[in-house]
Specification:
Layout: H1 7-26, H2 45-64, H3 72-77, H4 87-92, H5 101-124, H6 134-155, E1 177-180, E2 183-187, E3 205-209, E4 212-215, H7 221-229, E5 254-257, E6 260-265, E7 268-271, H8 272-275, H9 284-293, H10 301-309, E8 363-369, H11 385-388, E9 395-399, E10 416-419, E11 427-428
Parallel strand pairs: 8-11
Antiparallel strand pairs: 1-4, 2-3, 5-6, 6-7, 8-9, 9-10
Helix pairs in contact: 1-5, 1-6, 2-5, 2-6
Length: 433
């Protein structure tokens, strides 16, 4: 029998696999397009080629181990991205001059080689940042999150190399209403119960919530088209007042084509007749307007948590479907395909209450503002602003993951968030009454 890999070997393997995916994603973009800004609210694509290794060095080498800069200029240049509210703020944060790609690649390779050498030192360093390799987990999950958010940019970038991938299309499943009785909701986790979690996952918040009626499936593109085509999209009464100055003429992932609406996907556009079964990818502001039009609202984080993980018997599950490890039959995640699946394609992933697609296919917008759980502390001293910088009235909690989310992020305590007007998220939403 072969021996189990050591912690050093496991981290080395995970880092190499993670970096390999990063490289494969960037290879989809022509070098001539790396200075493009497909989403004006973000730096050009080249920034992220340098940001991912800079983050690892700043967290591990300079931060956890106190080794100082690897390349003082590039460590700083690529340290952090931007999250502006609008294009004017993005322009104010713009950087006009970037290094050549060869220099960025050389920096990336130096960081990677040095980090692999330092894994044993990290694991031997006392303190909660290095204990159980937490700072290495932090770097892995940060990069895996960027694998997905890079695709938000790629979806806006014409000419991406497709290698022949085709979208998964179909009408999807219409939703029904499920009654969920009042009871306990559990958000977050206790520090001692898991080896790694981001600061916003701690501590464990248990509360009693009243009964609610929840849609069994997310809203489909074809459902949302009724809202747009009826003219209700442009009626002020369905929108929050703070979003009226922003409201676009149509959803950001929709384009007018020769035969009507077409829906963006990573490698082009799909006629709405084919993509009508996909979950509606819209901003929180637009999802809220649709819900108001339907006489409903968006569920809270607590409601989705209860719908996903509780059971009629009172027992709590690790996943909506039970304790069985995540597999492709439970939901679309981890680049299984390069498009969402038609809603309802994974019935094996339903929760004990019969609620579908609580994990995978689209990050689900909630009505909950992103904020700290009771007892919150920014435990990662190298990254104190990871969550705290976004505790405001501008960011909403999203739930469950998308088709591009890494499986390591599918844990009950994981919490994610986006700006309320951001239309590029691989999102979904459903209604509650």
């Amino acid at each position: 029998m072969s021996e189990s890999p050591s912690p050093t070997e496991r981290f080395e393997r995970e880092l190499r696999d993670c970096w390999s995916r990063s490289d494969a994603l960037f290879d989809r973009v022509s070098p001539a397009d790396l200075l493009d800004r497909p989403i004006q609210l973000r730096h050009p694509i080249l920034f992220y080629v340098g940001h991912l290794p800079a983050f690892v060095w700043n967290q591990v080498g300079a931060g956890a181990l106190g080794l100082g800069p690897l390349d003082a200029e590039l460590d700083c240049l690529f340290e952090r991205g931007i999250d502006p509210h609008d294009a004017c703020a993005a322009e104010d944060a713009s950087i006009q001059s970037w290094p050549e790609l060869e220099a960025v690649h050389a920096y990336r390779d130096r960081v990677r080689a040095r980090i692999l050498e330092l894994i044993p030192q990290v694991l031997a360093t006392p303190g909660e940042l290095c204990e159980k390799g937490r700072v290495l987990h932090l770097c892995l999950e940060h990069e895996r999150l960027h694998h997905e958010t890079l695709l938000y940019m790629f979806q806006e970038q014409p000419g991406l190399r497709s290698l022949g991938e085709q979208p998964d299309v179909g009408a999807g499943v219409a939703s029904s209403v499920v009654e969920i009785p009042g009871g306990e909701s559990r958000i977050g986790a206790r520090w001692e119960d898991q080896d790694f979690g981001w600061d916003n996952e701690f501590g464990l918040h248990i509360q009693e919530i009243p009964a609610f009626s929840l849609d069994s499936h997310p809203v489909r593109v074809s459902d949302f088209a009724e809202f747009v085509d009826s003219g209700a999209w442009m009626k002020d009464r369905y929108w929050d007042a703070q979003d009226l100055d922003w409201r676009p003429e149509h959803p950001g992932s929709w384009v007018r084509g020769p035969q009507g609406w077409e829906i963006k996907w990573i490698f082009g556009r799909v006629p709405i007749a084919q993509a009508g079964g996909w979950p509606a990818q819209v901003s929180y502001a637009a999802a809220t307007a649709y819900a108001r039009w339907k006489g409903a609202s968006l569920p809270s984080e607590a409601q989705l948590n209860r719908a996903a993980y509780s059971t009629p018997s009172g027992r709590w599950r690790s996943y909506p479907w039970g304790e069985q490890p995540l597999s492709p039959k439970h939901g679309r995640l981890d680049f299984e395909r390069w498009s969402p699946a038609p809603v309802g394609s994974h019935p094996a992933g339903a929760s004990a209450w019969g609620i579908h697609e609580l994990v995978g296919n689209g990050w689900e917008w909630t009505s909950s503002r992103f904020g700290p759980l009771p007892g919150f502390r920014a435990w990662a001293s190298t990254y104190p602003g990871y969550s705290a910088d976004f505790f405001d009235d501008w960011h909403q909690v999203v739930f469950g993951g998308s088709w591009a989310t890494h499986p390591s992020l599918v844990r009950r305590s994981f919490r994610n968030w986006y700006q309320r007007r951001y239309p590029f998220v691989f999102s979904s939403f459903r209604l509650v009454r």
